[in-house]
Specification:
The protein is α+β, with helices and mostly antiparallel strands. The protein folds into two domains: 131 residues, no CATH class; 147 residues, Alpha-Beta Plaits (2-Layer Sandwich), CATH 3.30.70. Helix content is 62%, strand content 15%. It is built from eight helices and seven strands, in the order H-H-H-H-E-H-E-H-E-E-H-E-E-E-H. The strands form two sheets. It has a five-stranded mixed sheet, sandwiched between helices. The radius of gyration is 32 Å and the shape is elongated. The chain starts with 9 loop residues before the first helix and ends in a 6-residue tail after the last helix. Its EC number is 2.7.7.65. GO terms for molecular function: diguanylate cyclase activity. This is Putative diguanylate cyclase AdrA.
């Protein structure tokens, strides 16, 4: 339904354009080939196509109402032409057929719209379900499942198109201490602040994830190791101290981040090889 959509659905736009195109073709055929029928035939054809547009745009119920109105109007026209002014001397099959075509067209166009709407809804539900499975609720970043899925996709793409990407792992070395000092609820606020800083220091296209309680992962597409080290410097500066509101008071928190880096190599046969190198680098980086 158009009323529930924020923008015009593409299938509705295409359907309307097709109906208008068919109407134009019929008009041209009837105009330049009079032997195929009178131009008066254009009127019921136009009404039929308009009825289908209404049904597809506004739904089956409103389309059927429009079809009933058209059927009543056309039936009244036949009765008037036949019984009142005797312009139509014989009611042939074509006149009767139009009385069935209007409601039938409403059903077909309305059902088509319903099928498309159900298909779109299933896609949206599937997308929402995937987000529930792969998104961390507390930070809005990917969780470990979503992160490794994206890593695998990027690894396949990099191998196919000979591109590069880098992996950064951020370990909050003192996160256990922060949990003891501030408690579970406030430590989540600290984690959210860290995630916000990471978002600000990275690109929209970079994949950010909370892999575990104290480790965040970042995948940098189309970025070699030199480019990734620039990002590391920015992250160290942003995460070394951050201000977070805890229990109504702004506090400056020292995070002590360790950041491991790894770039994809041509010899890598699995993305976990690059991930493991980044994990090992965590032992050497102390900010």
């Amino acid at each position: 339904m158009i009323a529930s959509d924020k923008y015009i659905r593409k299938d509705i736009l295409f359907f309307n354009l097709i109906m208008v195109f068919i109407l134009a073709v019929i008009a041209i055929v009837l105009l330049y080939a009079p032997t195929m029928g009178t131009f008066n035939l254009f009127i019921p054809f136009a009404c039929l196509l308009f009825n289908m547009i209404v049904s597809h745009n506004l739904g089956l119920q409103r389309g059927l109402m429009a079809g009933i109105v058209l059927t009543f109007a056309f039936g009244s026209y036949i009765i008037y032409e036949t019984m009142i002014i005797n312009r139509i001397t014989e009611v042939n099959f074509a006149y009767i057929a139009w009385l069935f075509f209007f409601p039938l067209s409403s059903i077909l166009a309305g059902q088509l719209s319903l099928v498309v709407s159900n298909y779109r809804r299933e896609l949206e539900n599937k997308k929402s379900l995937e987000q529930l499975v792969t998104i961390d609720a507390s930070t809005g970043l990917y969780n470990s499942q979503g992160f490794f899925r994206k890593l695998e996709e990027e690894f396949v793409r990099a191998k196919r198109y000979k591109t590069c990407f880098s992996i950064l792992l951020i370990k909050m070395s003192n996160f256990d201490e922060l949990q003891v000092i501030y408690g579970e609820i406030d430590s989540i606020k600290i984690l959210q602040s860290v995630a916000g800083k990471v978002e600000l220091q990275t690109r929209f296209s970079d994949i950010k994830a909370l892999i575990s309680a104290d480790i965040l992962g970042i995948m940098l597409p189309e970025t070699n190791e030199d480019g990734a080290r620039i990002v590391i410097e920015k992250l160290h500066q942003a995460l070394d101290r951050l201000t977070t509101e805890i229990r109504g008071t702004k506090k400056v928190i020292r995070i002590k981040p360790s950041i491991g880096i790894s770039s994809i190599k041509e010899s890598d046969t699995d993305v976990l090889e690059a991930y493991q190198r980044a994990k090992e680098e965590l032992n050497y980086d102390r900010g």
